[in-house]
């Protein structure tokens, strides 16, 4: 069900919701050309920056699996489900976005919509964040925002993936590229980052 992805992943990030099915989808490579503007309003695949791709680890209780970021998809850290990430356009044959379609249309196509997340960008607290949210919702409040920053840890520079509330940019979780760094710094608070007190890591 659409709301389940968001609800589960969101628990780890402020009890928000994001959409994704609960069934398992095997990871696979999907060519960008396979997703074009269609009757569902899927415009094209979103591509994550190369520095974001790969496995990211967290010790948050709601992230038992690594967050695996692919070129145009992610494996959710709670369920390990493989979810494609897209940019959304107007539904073919209409002048409406998916969130402007009738509830009957959304319900009829829920099984398809639930396999995708919509990517958008937003500036929060001086940084650009990528927001992943339900395809059929105009608002991004039921999504999660992510950004990657270079932080100095024990005298060395490392990439850190931060997850936040897309409304206020307060960090609710942080991911590292190795398990050893995660074990040492999962609860560490970097000076240039504002953390949420609602969901301590």
Would you give an account of this structure?
By secondary structure, the protein is an alpha+beta fold. The protein is built from four helices and ten strands, in the order H-E-E-E-E-E-H-H-E-E-E-E-E-H. Strands 1, 2, 3, 4, 5, 6, 7, 8, 9 and 10 form a ten-stranded mixed sheet that branches. It is elongated and about 55 Å long. The N terminus is likely disordered.
Order of helices and strands: HEEEEEHHEEEEEH
Quantity of strands, as a count: 10
Shape: elongated
| Fraction in helix | 10-25%
Low-confidence stretches: 1-8, 10-33
- What's the total helix number? 4
Which radius of gyration do the C-alpha atoms yield?
Answer: 17 Å
Secondary-structure-based class equals: alpha+beta
Mean pLDDT: 84
Biggest sheet character: 10 strands, mixed
List the helices and strands and how they pair.
Layout: H1 2-11, E1 42-45, E2 54-56, E3 67-69, E4 73-75, E5 82-88, H2 103-108, H3 110-113, E6 116-124, E7 127-134, E8 144-153, E9 156-164, E10 171-175, H4 179-185
Parallel strand pairs: 5-6
Antiparallel strand pairs: 1-5, 2-3, 3-4, 4-5, 6-7, 7-8, 8-9, 9-10
Search tags:
single chain; ten-stranded mixed sheet; 201 residues; alpha+beta
In short:
The protein has 201 residues and is of the alpha+beta class. It contains four helices and ten strands, in the order αβββββααβββββα.
């Amino acid at each position: 069900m659409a709301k389940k992805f968001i609800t589960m992943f969101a628990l780890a990030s402020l009890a928000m919701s994001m959409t994704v099915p609960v069934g398992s989808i095997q990871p696979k490579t999907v060519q960008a050309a396979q997703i074009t503007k269609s009757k569902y309003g899927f415009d094209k695949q979103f591509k994550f920056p190369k520095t974001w791709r790969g496995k990211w680890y967290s010790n948050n209780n709601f992230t038992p699996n690594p967050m695996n970021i692919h070129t145009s998809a992610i494996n959710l850290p709670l369920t390990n489900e493989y979810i494609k990430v897209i940019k959304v356009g107007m539904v073919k044959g209409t002048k409406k976005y998916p969130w402007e379609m009738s509830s009957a249309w959304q319900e009829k196509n829920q099984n398809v919509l639930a396999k995708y997340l919509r990517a958008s960008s937003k500036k929060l607290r001086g940084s650009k964040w990528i927001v992943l949210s339900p395809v059929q919702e105009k608002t991004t409040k039921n999504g999660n925002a992510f950004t990657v920053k270079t932080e100095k840890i024990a005298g060395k520079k490392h990439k850190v993936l931060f997850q936040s509330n897309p409304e206020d940019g307060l960090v609710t979780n942080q991911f590292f590229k190795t398990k050893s760094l995660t074990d040492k710094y999962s609860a560490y608070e970097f000076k240039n980052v504002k953390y949420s007190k609602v969901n301590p890591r």
